[in-house]
């Protein structure tokens, strides 16, 4: 296909500190909420004791092996790498006045290595983790004081890296707090809706303060939000299904509305009122929220359906977001439905709604890869998945949607977020490690490595439109 991608398009990949770095408590790192979730973001919260271990403690040892991995990303032609800063490397307990210099120095080395190859960092401030000290001492995001601790952290890293990082994100998949409160806001899973939405409100205020700080500190810096793009379709054209679909889509679009428009939408105030949800929103908070993001970033893995038929809803209680399956779509090995056209639809929905640049910062296929006798890994299923999604991105660009870039999720195999598995592989680069933590950690190029290299080199011209 002839390329519809702009010349400055940011091709690359995306990782998260807690899923790749390892180096558990190395160089003064504190205990994070992720460290207490050895079975993933939906697993039990498990206190750490001396001598125990979890797969994320080493992960893929990116902390020590990043030069090798950055060189491999450069070989593919990456223009951009999305990663996160582990908050606990900078402020181990979260409430310190002075940062941990060893933690700051690590990210200096990482960003410098990326700069050697001309790879731009896209940095998430908080990616599914926060200092456990803030949970234990203050109650996590349920406490208004956490806003100040986060702002102090954000200003610290903006000052340190203002000449190395131009693109920033505040909170990863901020709407996931509705489904995983401990992961998102450091609250117990059985917290009330009022408690969860109050914590979310504090996080939204903190996000806006970080936006203001970035604009003040980073010359020419741009900062966005990050949404889990769980777009939903009505299962039928029954008006009640269509209306319920709108309501459920607003459950997650609400976060973007606040961050991009600068205040709470009327539909959310009605929802709070009718469900007895009490959220303290001060005049100072309202003023802070007016500082809006520069661009919208989001993840996209699958779509889902909505119905008012309770019997059908009960059969959907098994997947990650309790989505009703779409009878017209196939599914991955993990039950995630594959819907490339949904990405084009979502891009148009978000651009129509916000008229801000969009950045696809996660999209990929988790699958069980097999190493052949000759050492090759023929992941044509991944190539097909990514090709078909990128073709739809090109179509959205042709629709007039402004898309800044695309960073595929997990360009190198990493520990999956949902269940902390290595066997659920996303990468173009294979890492020799299994779910039990066994393996050499050797890196190996998959077939998709060369495919993605060609996509980037051709600026999308090598994609195959199968329509």
From TrEMBL:
PROSITE patterns: GLYCOSYL_HYDROL_F1_1 (PS00572), GLYCOSYL_HYDROL_F1_2 (PS00653)
UniProt-annotated catalytic positions: 362 (nucleophile)
Biological-process GO terms, alphabetical: carbohydrate catabolic process
Keyword Cytoplasm: no
One MF term in the entry's GO annotations: 6-phospho-beta-glucosidase activity
Keyword Hydrolase on entry: yes
Domain of life of the native organism: Bacteria
Family classification: Belongs to the glycosyl hydrolase 1 family.
Protein name: 6-phospho-beta-glucosidase
Gene this protein is translated from: ascB
């Amino acid at each position: 296909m002839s390329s519809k991608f702009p010349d400055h398009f940011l091709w690359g990949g995306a990782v998260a500190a807690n899923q790749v770095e390892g180096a558990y408590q190395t160089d003064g790192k504190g205990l994070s909420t992720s460290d207490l979730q050895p079975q993933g973001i939906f697993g039990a919260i498990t206190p750490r004791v001396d001598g125990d271990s979890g797969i994320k403690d080493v992960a893929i040892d990116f902390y020590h092996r990043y030069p090798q991995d950055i060189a491999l990303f450069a070989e593919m032609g990456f223009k951009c790498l999305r990663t996160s800063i582990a908050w606990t490397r900078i402020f181990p307990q979260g409430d310190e006045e002075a940062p941990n210099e060893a933690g700051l120095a690590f990210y200096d080395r990482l960003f410098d290595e990326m700069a050697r190859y001309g790879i731009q960092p896209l940095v998430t401030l908080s990616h599914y983790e926060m200092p456990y000290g803030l949970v234990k001492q203050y109650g996590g995001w349920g406490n208004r004081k956490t806003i100040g601790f986060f702002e102090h952290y954000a200003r610290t890293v903006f000052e340190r890296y203002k000449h190395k990082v131009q693109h920033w994100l505040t909170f990863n998949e901020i709407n996931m707090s509705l489904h995983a409160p401990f992961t998102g806001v450091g609250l117990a899973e059985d917290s009330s809706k009022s408690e969860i939405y109050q914590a979310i409100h504090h996080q939204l205020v903190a996000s806006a303060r970080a936006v203001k700080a970035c604009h003040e500190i980073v010359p020419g810096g741009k900062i966005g939000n990050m949404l889990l793009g769980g777009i939903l379709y009505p299962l039928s054209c029954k008006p009640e299904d269509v209306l319920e679909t709108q309501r459920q889509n607003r459950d997650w679009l609400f976060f973007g509305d606040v961050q991009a428009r600068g205040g709470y939408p009327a539909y959310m105030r009605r929802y709070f009122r009718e469900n007895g949800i009490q959220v303290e929103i001060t005049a100072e908070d309202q003023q802070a929220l007016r500082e809006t993001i520069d661009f919208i970033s989001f993840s996209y893995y699958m779509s889902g359906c909505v119905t008012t038929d309770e019997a059908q809803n009960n059969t959907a209680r098994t997947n990650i977001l309790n989505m009703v399956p779409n009878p017209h779509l196939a599914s991955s090995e993990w039950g995630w439905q594959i819907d490339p056209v949904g990405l084009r639809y979502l891009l148009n929905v978000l651009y129509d709604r916000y008229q801000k640049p969009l950045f696809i910062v996660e999209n990929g296929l988790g699958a069980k890869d097999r190493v052949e006798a000759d050492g090759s890994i023929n992941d044509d299923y991944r190539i097909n998945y990514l090709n078909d999604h990128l073709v739809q991105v090109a179509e959205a660009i042709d629709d007039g949607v402004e898309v800044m870039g695309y960073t595929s999720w997990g360009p190198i195999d990493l520990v999956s977020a949902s269940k902390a598995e290595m066997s659920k592989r996303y990468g173009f680069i294979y890492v020799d490690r299994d779910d039990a933590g066994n393996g050499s950690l050797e890196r190996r190029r998959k077939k998709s490595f060369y495919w993605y290299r060609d996509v980037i080199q051709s600026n999308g011209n090598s994609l195959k439109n199968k329509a």
